[in-house]
Every structure is written in C-alpha cells, then in structure tokens.
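Re: the 302-residue chain
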Amino acid sequence: MERMKIAIALIFIVIAGILVAGCTQSSSAPGIPTGTTAAPTTPAATLTVPPLTITQVPDQMSMDCNQTSPSGNGKPFITIDPVPHQYIGESIRFGGTTNLQPGESLVTAVYSGEFAPCPKSAGNCRGNVTPCCGGYSATVSVLPGPCGIDTWSWEVNTSEHGFRPDGLYIISAIGRNGAVENYSFFTVSGIPQPNLTLNLPENDSDGYALLLSGQVNTGNGPDEQLILMISTDSGRRASYMIPVFHNETGYYWHFSLKKSDIVPYNFLTVTVSPETRPAISIERTFLYNNEPPFFPYNPYSP
C-alpha cells in the first residue's frame, strides 16, 4: 500500500513537471504587441541612369564641306567665272573662287589679247587696255566663302580704259606674289546697228493670251522702254509701256497680251517703238490665227 502511494505521487510529480515545462515555453514565444504599431518600412529602391550620349548629326552644309573642302595642305588655286556676252559701255563683274585665306590680296588685270607691233614708247597709256599698253589693274581682297572655298570679284566699266568694239581681252588674277594665278579670254562686242524685231505671236498654254516678243537694241541698254500699241478691225485699241531685258545674246522684250482686251477681231495690228528712238519702230498685222497675211514674214524693223 505504501508503495502504491509512492508510485501515485511520482506520477503526479511527472505530470506537474510536464505542465510546468509547457507553460514556460508558451510564455517565451513572442506575443503580438497591443496598441498602435508602425507599418514595416521597405527600403527605397535606387535607380541608376546610364550617362546620356548625344551624337550630333552633321547638317547638309557639313556633309557638302566634307566632300568639297580642299585639304589644308592643298595646292592654292584661283578660278575665274566665264564672262557673259557684253557690249561696249556695260560694266563687267569678274569673279571666281579660291582657297586662299580671306583677306589675302589678289592682283586683277585686264589687258589686250591682240598681237600688234608696238613702238619703243607707247606714250602715257597707263590704265588702258588697248594693244601696246599695260592694261588696267587693281588689287582686290579675298572674301570668305563656305567650306573654305572663298571668293573674289572685280567690276570694270567698258566705257572707260580704252575698250574697243569686238576686241579680244584677257582677265588675269594673281595671288601670293605670282605663286598662284589664272587667266581667261573674253570679248566685248560693239553696239550693233539700232534694230527692233517682232516675232510671230503665240498663244499661251491656256489660250487666254497672246505672247509677243522680239529683240531690241537702241544703244540705251536696259534703260530703254518700248511703247506697244494694239488695234483690231473691230475698233478695239490698247497701249502699254514695256521694259527691256538682257540675256546672253543681247537685249529683248516680251509681253503677254490678254485676249479679253482685244476680242472680237479677225486681224490685229501690232506696233512697237522705242521711247527714245521712235524712228526704228516696227508695225505688223496678224490674222486671228496669229499668221501673217503675207509670206515670207519679215520680223525686222526697216
């Protein structure tokens, strides 16, 4: 009996030990705190931006320069632009390009290209372009241009310096004390006999106008003006003051005549006369189809 009591007591002691151990473990577990709690904080992400590289796209000028610019050690050059058709009394504007530096000086000159025996002393003809004279010269500066191709220009009045009708002349340009030079030939025509022409009329592309045109030379160049008069068989009349233009062959005129100003008509008469030289006027009659009443047609003034 005594042994049974001792065994029961031991059993209770073991059970109590187990209960005590369980409570101790429960109280050691982390509990949930009461009251206001702060939300967990997430560390801010760091954004790393790679450096921006800007590639400059060359413009058209730069591309053209890369293709046309002379190298820095290139041979120096001077070019001379072709000289257009000129008449005595007009001013000629010579010009060209060069790779010499802006501000450098060029010696430009015009002299006769004709061969002629010259006396030992030609007298005082300095600045004259006639044969046996030294020609007319000047010093001009190189002007800056694109891509290192610079320019030069020089204007000469052919009413001065002894220019002669239909003479052959030379224009030269020299730089760096003769280290680089170039030259070109040109002619200056004399004033031809005053004349005026009238071409056959033409319809414009829309058929609403007549195109009148012709050549003119009165000695007054582009300062001349022409008086254009139109009359028809129906009694319609019109008059206009028209200018003179210049091209590679000389001076010319043209005018667009509205048909509404002259219709109706079976034939019309066109009279053209220079304001300063009425004596060289021209008058022609044309049918409604722009043909002359008689052939062959003569477009020249008397």
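The two ends are 173 Å apart (CA to CA).
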